[in-house]
Specification:
Layout lengths: L1 E6 L4 E8 L3 E9 L1 H5 L6 H22 L9 E7 L3 H18 L3 E5 H7 L11 E6 L4 E8 L2 E7 L5 H11 L6 H8 L25 H17 L5 H26 L4 E5 L6 H13 L3 E3 L10 H13 L22
Parallel strand pairs: 1-4, 4-5, 6-9, 9-10
Antiparallel strand pairs: 1-2, 2-3, 6-7, 7-8
Helix pairs in contact: 2-3, 4-10, 5-6, 5-7, 5-8, 8-9
The structure holds 5'-O-[(R)-(carboxyoxy)(hydroxy)phosphoryl]adenosine (KG4) and zinc ion.
Length: 337
């Protein structure tokens, strides 16, 4: 079964053709990241405009790279939530038009479910497993009990891990996205140079809170500048990255041990982080847990992961009509459209 996946939830316009949820036939990504870098973050209006310009060409390219035409496709899968509403609407509108005109089923896909599905593209992992989903907008620990069956075990109370890295990177004067810059510069610094809090939430052992950490790094920078002390950016980045990663891995470890999961799946843009990957390896080895990490090229937003999840949604009977709307917010465990 061939699924065309379309993604436009943030700044990547992407499309891909995937066979049976596992084999990538094509994967095309156009990004407006370079333009957003000028502003230090994603500008929604610019993202929407670039999606509208790129989407037709990106989808045509994905079909031709896969050596097929729209008639060869079994279903059109599209990210419909969560994300930037104007950006999502471009993908959803395009997918609706394409599905209706070609007479193909339309399958709505939740963005975080598709990040998890990125692992299906390069490994044979199957549910049940525990997943750490860490992106620019979300930080979740999710029990994935089936391909379309999720339970949130822990989540962030404020900022997402990616957001906390991006905002700290910006305060340190590093290029956007801060998560990528901090990952790059950290090996040059001493991760024990600064100490940061590891916030815990009473009664919610698997939940995260990153806003205090972010404030703490910003205060460190302001205090140093008021006193005329020069900050070593690599030391600060390394120490901050260590704190964020320790918060993530500590809670993930507690959840995996308590719920007795023997498989852990990393997902989302932040799962590209080298320290997170290394520390998860160590933690999983300690508990004889098998760790799955998405290939780096599938960590960020892409159409292949949408097609992969779309396949499993399609098999479980999920279909949308041409009235499908896009939603900025939607929980991973109970989709509604
Ligand atoms: O999943 P994603 O591409 O988009 C969303 O769905 O949000 O995630 C983007 C986030 C950004 O916050 C970015 O800084 C972060 O992923 N990110 C990283 C790395 N690569 C991307 N964070 C830490 N280390 C990385 N290597
Ligand atoms: Zn994403």
């Amino acid at each position: 079964m061939l699924i065309l996946g379309i993604e436009s939830s943030c700044d990547e316009t992407a499309a891909a053709v995937v066979e049976n949820g596992r084999t990538v036939k094509s994967n095309v990504i156009a990004s407006s990241l370079e333009e957003h870098k000028l502003y230090g973050g994603v500008v929604p209006e610019i993202a929407s405009r670039r999606h509208a310009e790129a989407i037709s060409g990106v989808v045509s390219q994905a079909l031709s790279d896969a050596g097929c035409e729209i008639q060869d496709i079994d279903a059109v899968a599209v990210t419909f939530a969560p994300g930037l509403i104007g950006a999502l609407l471009v993908g959803v509108s395009f997918a609706k038009g394409l599905a209706v005109s070609a007479g193909k089923p339309l399958v709505p896909v939740h963005h975080l479910r598709s990040h998890i599905a990125a692992n299906y593209l390069t490994s044979d992992v199957e549910p049940p497993f525990l997943s750490l989903v860490v992106s620019g907008g979300h930080s979740h620990i999710v029990a994935v009990n089936g391909y379309t069956d999720y339970k949130i075990i822990g989540k962030t109370r404020d900022d997402a891990a990616g957001e906390a890295l991006d905002k700290a990177g910006r305060a340190m004067g590093l290029p956007y996205p801060g998560g990528v810059s901090i990952d790059k510069i950290s090996p040059l610094g001493n991760a024990d140079a600064y100490s940061f809090p590891h916030p815990k939430i009473d009664g919610a052992p698997y939940d995260f809170s990153f806003s205090g950490l972010k404030t703490s790094v910003i205060n460190t920078i302001h205090n140093a500048s008021q006193k005329g002390i020069k900050i070593n950016t690599a030391d600060l980045a390394a120490s901050y990255q260590k704190a964020v990663v320790e918060c993530l891995v500590d809670n993930l470890e507690k959840a995996a041990v308590n719920y007795r999961y023997k498989k852990i799946v990393l997902a989302g843009g932040v799962s590209a982080n080298s320290l997170l990957r290394a520390n998860c390896e160590k933690m999983c080895r300690k508990h004889s847990i098998k760790l799955y990490k998405p290939q780096l090229k599938y960590c960020g937003d892409n159409g292949a992961m949408v097609a992969a999840q779309g396949y499993y949604e399609f098999k479980s009977g999920v279909r949308a009509s041409s009235n499908l709307n896009a939603y900025a917010n939607m929980p991973i465990d109970s989709i509604n459209f």
